[in-house]
């Protein structure tokens, strides 16, 4: 729990499930006002109901992060409800298996538009308010794949590597305005995406992880909550690995 979070306004993309939802819970329980957004309206409604029963001040706004106008509309709804934006956590993303040689241009572009374009769109729409406030926290989800690469995921790895470059640049540009910009690189986390892995694939991956297990969404959410708190006030431009020891360098 972070007392400095009380009254802060946080937007969380991909907030209806997985790491995004757990981050919304973590921030909300620390007193932040939370706006969760996702592509699925029913999923948002279910998440808002769940968070509301926990006493969290939350709204949900459907949004397609790859569509700038949709993101602008979502941010406007958040400002109308809560007045401003102090925190942006970008968790929305897609992940599909496809060898590079078999990958279509549309598959490449869709992944780039959602994973990297979604972070770009979100940052473009909130940075103005953060500069006006003289305060802001931006955390984006990259991936272990964006650092070390991943067979069958050239599009995904490239999009996640782009997030690291964007994070480092924004950290330098926005530091004079009191805005910290960081990213988190999860390894394999127990989400709906990894839930589709076969038992054999799970066992293969677990042999490569020193902690010999997949992480949980809440283990990533705890790191995100720290980065958007004032306890991380001297951290910016960083990529924090949460990989169970699989990746041991930044």
Describe this structure in words.
- It is a single chain.
- The protein has one domain (3-241): NAD(P)-binding Rossmann-like Domain (Rossmann fold, 3-Layer(aba) Sandwich), CATH 3.40.50.
- The model has no long low-confidence stretch (mean pLDDT 96).
- It is of the alpha/beta class and 250 residues long.
- Helix 4 (105-133) links the parallel strand 4 (87-90) and strand 5 (136-141).
- It has eight helices and seven strands; from the N terminus they run E-H-E-H-E-H-E-H-E-H-H-E-H-H-E.
- The longest helix is centred in the middle third of the chain and has 29 residues, at 105-133.
The biggest sheet amounts to: 7 strands, parallel
Strand order across the largest sheet: 3-2-1-4-5-6-7
Mean pLDDT: 96
User: Compute the gyration radius: what is it?
Assistant: 17 Å
The topology string of helices and strands comes to EHEHEHEHEHHEHHE
Share in helix: 40-55%
Number of helices: 8
Shape: globular
Fraction of residues in β-strands: 15-25%
Per CATH, the class reads: Alpha Beta
How many beta strands in the DSSP annotation?
7
Uncertain runs are: none
Find the CATH superfamily: NAD(P)-binding Rossmann-like Domain
In brief, what are we looking at here?
With 250 residues, this protein is of the alpha/beta class.
What is the element layout, followed by pairings?
Elements: E1 9-13, H1 18-29, E2 33-38, H2 41-53, E3 58-62, H3 68-82, E4 87-90, H4 105-133, E5 136-141, H5 144-148, H6 154-174, E6 179-186, H7 199-208, H8 217-227, E7 239-242
Parallel strand pairs: 1-2, 1-4, 2-3, 4-5, 5-6, 6-7
Helix pairs in contact: 1-8, 3-4, 4-6
């Amino acid at each position: 729990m972070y007392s400095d979070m009380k009254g802060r306004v946080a937007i969380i993309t991909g907030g209806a499930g997985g790491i995004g939802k757990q981050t919304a819970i973590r921030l909300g329980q620390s007193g932040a006002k939370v706006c969760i957004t996702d592509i699925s309206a029913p999923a948002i409604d279910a998440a808002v109901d769940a968070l509301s029963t926990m006493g969290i001040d939350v709204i949900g706004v459907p949004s397609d992060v790859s569509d700038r106008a949709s993101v602008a509309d979502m941010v406007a709804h958040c400002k109308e409800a809560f007045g401003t934006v102090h925190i942006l956590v970008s968790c929305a993303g897609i992940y599909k298996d496809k060898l590079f040689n078999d990958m279509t241009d549309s598959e490449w572009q869709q992944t780039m538009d959602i994973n990297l374009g979604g972070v770009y769109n979100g940052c473009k729409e909130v940075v103005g308010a953060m500069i006006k406030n003289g305060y802001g926290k931006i955390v984006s989800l990259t991936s272990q794949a964006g650092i070390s690469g991943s067979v069958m995921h050239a599009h995904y790895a490239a999009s996640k590597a782009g997030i690291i470059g964007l994070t480092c640049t924004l950290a330098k540009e926005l530091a004079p305005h009191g805005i910290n910009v960081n990213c988190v690189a999860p390894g394999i986390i127990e989400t709906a995406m990894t839930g589709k892995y076969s038992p054999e694939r799970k066992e293969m991956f677990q042999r490569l992880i020193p902690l010999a297990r997949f992480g949980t969404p809440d283990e990533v959410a705890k790191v995100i909550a720290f980065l958007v708190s004032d306890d991380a006030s001297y951290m910016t431009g960083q990529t924090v690995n949460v990989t169970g020891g699989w990746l041991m360098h930044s």
